[in-house]
Protein backbone atom coordinates (compact mmCIF):
# COMPACT_ATOMS: atom_id res chain seq x y z
CA UNK A 1 0.00 0.00 0.00
CA UNK A 2 1.50 3.25 -1.05
CA UNK A 3 0.44 6.86 -1.14
CA UNK A 4 -1.50 8.43 1.70
CA UNK A 5 -0.93 5.61 4.15
CA UNK A 6 2.79 6.31 4.36
CA UNK A 7 3.93 2.85 3.29
CA UNK A 8 5.77 4.02 0.20
CA UNK A 9 9.44 3.55 -0.59
CA UNK A 10 11.71 4.19 2.37
CA UNK A 11 8.92 3.95 4.97
CA UNK A 12 7.80 1.13 7.22
CA UNK A 13 4.38 -0.47 6.93
CA UNK A 14 2.20 -0.30 10.02
CA UNK A 15 1.35 -3.52 11.87
CA UNK A 16 -2.19 -3.25 10.53
CA UNK A 17 -0.96 -3.04 6.96
CA UNK A 18 1.37 -5.98 7.47
CA UNK A 19 -1.48 -7.98 8.98
CA UNK A 20 -3.75 -7.20 6.04
CA UNK A 21 -1.07 -8.26 3.55
CA UNK A 22 -0.44 -11.50 5.49
CA UNK A 23 -4.16 -12.22 5.58
CA UNK A 24 -4.53 -11.59 1.85
CA UNK A 25 -1.50 -13.81 1.20
CA UNK A 26 -3.17 -16.71 2.97
CA UNK A 27 -6.35 -16.06 1.01
CA UNK A 28 -4.39 -16.11 -2.27
CA UNK A 29 -2.96 -19.51 -1.30
CA UNK A 30 -6.38 -20.89 -0.39
CA UNK A 31 -8.13 -19.67 -3.54
CA UNK A 32 -5.08 -20.64 -5.63
CA UNK A 33 -5.32 -24.23 -4.39
CA UNK A 34 -9.05 -24.20 -5.06
CA UNK A 35 -8.49 -22.90 -8.61
CA UNK A 36 -5.92 -25.63 -9.20
CA UNK A 37 -8.41 -28.25 -8.02
CA UNK A 38 -11.09 -26.77 -10.31
CA UNK A 39 -8.68 -26.85 -13.25
CA UNK A 40 -7.76 -30.48 -12.60
CA UNK A 41 -11.42 -31.49 -12.17
CA UNK A 42 -12.27 -29.61 -15.37
CA UNK A 43 -9.69 -31.66 -17.29
CA UNK A 44 -11.68 -34.77 -16.40
CA UNK A 45 -14.88 -33.43 -17.97
CA UNK A 46 -15.92 -33.22 -21.58
CA UNK A 47 -18.08 -30.55 -23.14
CA UNK A 48 -19.02 -27.10 -21.99
CA UNK A 49 -19.39 -26.11 -18.37
CA UNK A 50 -23.00 -26.63 -17.26
CA UNK A 51 -23.38 -23.28 -15.51
CA UNK A 52 -25.16 -20.15 -16.82
CA UNK A 53 -22.51 -18.07 -18.60
CA UNK A 54 -24.89 -15.10 -18.86
CA UNK A 55 -25.47 -14.87 -15.13
CA UNK A 56 -21.76 -15.36 -14.51
CA UNK A 57 -20.96 -12.54 -16.96
CA UNK A 58 -23.57 -10.30 -15.33
CA UNK A 59 -21.97 -10.91 -11.96
CA UNK A 60 -18.55 -10.15 -13.42
CA UNK A 61 -19.83 -6.79 -14.71
CA UNK A 62 -21.43 -6.07 -11.34
CA UNK A 63 -18.19 -6.71 -9.45
CA UNK A 64 -16.01 -4.76 -11.87
CA UNK A 65 -18.35 -1.79 -11.52
CA UNK A 66 -18.23 -2.11 -7.74
CA UNK A 67 -14.43 -2.05 -7.89
CA UNK A 68 -14.59 1.22 -9.81
CA UNK A 69 -16.82 2.68 -7.10
CA UNK A 70 -14.44 1.52 -4.38
CA UNK A 71 -11.53 3.16 -6.22
CA UNK A 72 -13.55 6.38 -6.35
CA UNK A 73 -14.27 6.06 -2.61
CA UNK A 74 -10.56 5.63 -1.84
CA UNK A 75 -9.75 8.73 -3.89
CA UNK A 76 -12.54 10.74 -2.24
CA UNK A 77 -11.48 9.73 1.26
CA UNK A 78 -8.17 11.56 0.97
CA UNK A 79 -7.19 14.55 3.10
CA UNK A 80 -7.99 17.01 0.29
CA UNK A 81 -11.59 15.81 0.06
CA UNK A 82 -14.51 17.04 2.09
CA UNK A 83 -16.01 14.89 4.82
CA UNK A 84 -18.39 12.23 3.62
CA UNK A 85 -17.41 12.36 -0.06
CA UNK A 86 -16.57 8.65 -0.02
CA UNK A 87 -19.97 7.71 1.40
CA UNK A 88 -21.97 7.47 -1.86
CA UNK A 89 -19.46 5.30 -3.75
CA UNK A 90 -19.12 3.03 -0.71
CA UNK A 91 -22.91 2.62 -0.54
CA UNK A 92 -23.01 1.99 -4.29
CA UNK A 93 -20.29 -0.65 -4.11
CA UNK A 94 -21.99 -2.37 -1.16
CA UNK A 95 -25.32 -2.33 -3.05
CA UNK A 96 -23.63 -3.91 -6.07
CA UNK A 97 -22.21 -6.57 -3.76
CA UNK A 98 -25.75 -7.34 -2.62
CA UNK A 99 -26.84 -7.45 -6.28
CA UNK A 100 -24.06 -9.99 -6.98
CA UNK A 101 -25.35 -12.17 -4.13
CA UNK A 102 -28.91 -11.89 -5.43
CA UNK A 103 -27.85 -12.97 -8.93
CA UNK A 104 -25.88 -15.86 -7.42
CA UNK A 105 -28.98 -16.94 -5.45
CA UNK A 106 -31.03 -16.92 -8.67
CA UNK A 107 -28.31 -18.95 -10.35
CA UNK A 108 -28.16 -21.49 -7.51
CA UNK A 109 -31.92 -21.94 -7.73
CA UNK A 110 -31.71 -22.53 -11.49
CA UNK A 111 -28.79 -24.92 -11.00
CA UNK A 112 -30.77 -26.96 -8.49
CA UNK A 113 -33.78 -27.01 -10.83
CA UNK A 114 -31.50 -28.45 -13.57
CA UNK A 115 -30.22 -31.11 -11.19
CA UNK A 116 -26.79 -29.51 -10.77
CA UNK A 117 -26.47 -30.35 -7.09
CA UNK A 118 -23.56 -31.44 -4.94
CA UNK A 119 -22.93 -35.15 -5.28
CA UNK A 120 -20.60 -37.44 -7.18
CA UNK A 121 -19.46 -34.83 -9.76
CA UNK A 122 -16.25 -33.29 -8.39
CA UNK A 123 -16.42 -30.28 -10.71
CA UNK A 124 -19.95 -29.40 -9.56
CA UNK A 125 -18.89 -29.85 -5.93
CA UNK A 126 -15.93 -27.52 -6.44
CA UNK A 127 -18.22 -25.01 -8.13
CA UNK A 128 -20.36 -24.83 -5.00
CA UNK A 129 -17.39 -24.73 -2.64
CA UNK A 130 -15.66 -21.97 -4.62
CA UNK A 131 -18.73 -19.81 -5.21
CA UNK A 132 -20.01 -20.22 -1.65
CA UNK A 133 -16.58 -19.37 -0.22
CA UNK A 134 -16.43 -16.35 -2.50
CA UNK A 135 -19.93 -15.34 -1.40
CA UNK A 136 -18.84 -15.46 2.26
CA UNK A 137 -15.89 -13.19 1.48
CA UNK A 138 -18.15 -10.89 -0.54
CA UNK A 139 -20.66 -10.69 2.32
CA UNK A 140 -17.86 -9.65 4.69
CA UNK A 141 -16.82 -7.00 2.15
CA UNK A 142 -20.38 -5.70 1.81
CA UNK A 143 -20.66 -5.35 5.60
CA UNK A 144 -17.28 -3.62 5.72
CA UNK A 145 -18.13 -1.12 2.96
CA UNK A 146 -21.60 -0.42 4.36
CA UNK A 147 -20.15 0.08 7.84
CA UNK A 148 -17.55 2.53 6.50
CA UNK A 149 -20.31 4.46 4.73
CA UNK A 150 -21.95 5.10 8.11
CA UNK A 151 -18.88 6.69 9.70
CA UNK A 152 -16.12 9.08 8.70
CA UNK A 153 -13.27 6.62 8.38
CA UNK A 154 -9.62 7.47 8.07
CA UNK A 155 -8.31 7.36 4.48
CA UNK A 156 -6.07 4.41 5.40
CA UNK A 157 -9.13 2.46 6.57
CA UNK A 158 -10.96 3.08 3.30
CA UNK A 159 -7.81 2.10 1.41
CA UNK A 160 -7.49 -1.15 3.40
CA UNK A 161 -11.16 -1.99 2.82
CA UNK A 162 -10.66 -1.19 -0.85
CA UNK A 163 -7.73 -3.57 -1.04
CA UNK A 164 -9.85 -6.35 0.46
CA UNK A 165 -12.72 -5.58 -1.93
CA UNK A 166 -10.44 -5.58 -4.96
CA UNK A 167 -9.02 -8.92 -3.83
CA UNK A 168 -12.52 -10.43 -3.62
CA UNK A 169 -13.31 -9.06 -7.08
CA UNK A 170 -10.04 -10.42 -8.47
CA UNK A 171 -10.87 -13.88 -7.12
CA UNK A 172 -14.10 -13.76 -9.14
CA UNK A 173 -12.19 -12.66 -12.26
CA UNK A 174 -10.30 -15.98 -11.99
CA UNK A 175 -13.28 -18.10 -10.89
CA UNK A 176 -15.56 -16.98 -13.73
CA UNK A 177 -13.49 -18.34 -16.62
CA UNK A 178 -12.40 -21.44 -14.67
CA UNK A 179 -15.99 -22.37 -13.83
CA UNK A 180 -17.95 -21.04 -16.78
CA UNK A 181 -15.77 -20.62 -19.87
CA UNK A 182 -12.87 -23.08 -20.04
CA UNK A 183 -13.90 -26.14 -22.06
CA UNK A 184 -13.26 -29.61 -20.72
From TrEMBL:
GO MF assignments: cytochrome-c oxidase activity
SUPFAM superfamilies: Cytochrome c oxidase subunit III-like (SSF81452)
InterPro entries cross-referenced by the UniProt entry: Cyt_c/ubiquinol_Oxase_su3, Cyt_c_oxidase-like_su3, Cyt_c_oxidase_su3-like_sf, Cyt_c_oxidase_su3_a-hlx
Domain of life: Bacteria
UniProt keyword annotation of Membrane present: yes
GO CC, alphabetical: plasma membrane
One of the GO BP terms on file: aerobic electron transport chain
Membrane topology classification: Multi-pass membrane protein
Membrane-spanning intervals of the chain: 20-43, 55-74, 86-106, 126-151, 163-182
Keywords recorded for this protein, A-Z: Membrane, Transmembrane, Transmembrane helix
Localisation per UniProt entry: Cell membrane; Membrane
Domain Heme-copper oxidase subunit III family profile: 1-184
Stated family: Belongs to the cytochrome c oxidase subunit 3 family.
Cited PANTHER family: CYTOCHROME C OXIDASE SUBUNIT III (PTHR11403), NITRIC OXIDE REDUCTASE SUBUNIT E (PTHR11403:SF6)
The protein, known as: Heme-copper oxidase subunit III family profile domain-containing protein
Biological source species: Azospirillum doebereinerae
Amino acid sequence: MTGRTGAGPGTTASPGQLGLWLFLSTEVMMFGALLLAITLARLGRSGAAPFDKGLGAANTAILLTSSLLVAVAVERSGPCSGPGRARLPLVGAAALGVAFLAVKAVEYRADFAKGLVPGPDLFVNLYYVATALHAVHLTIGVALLAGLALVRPQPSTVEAAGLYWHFVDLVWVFLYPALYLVPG
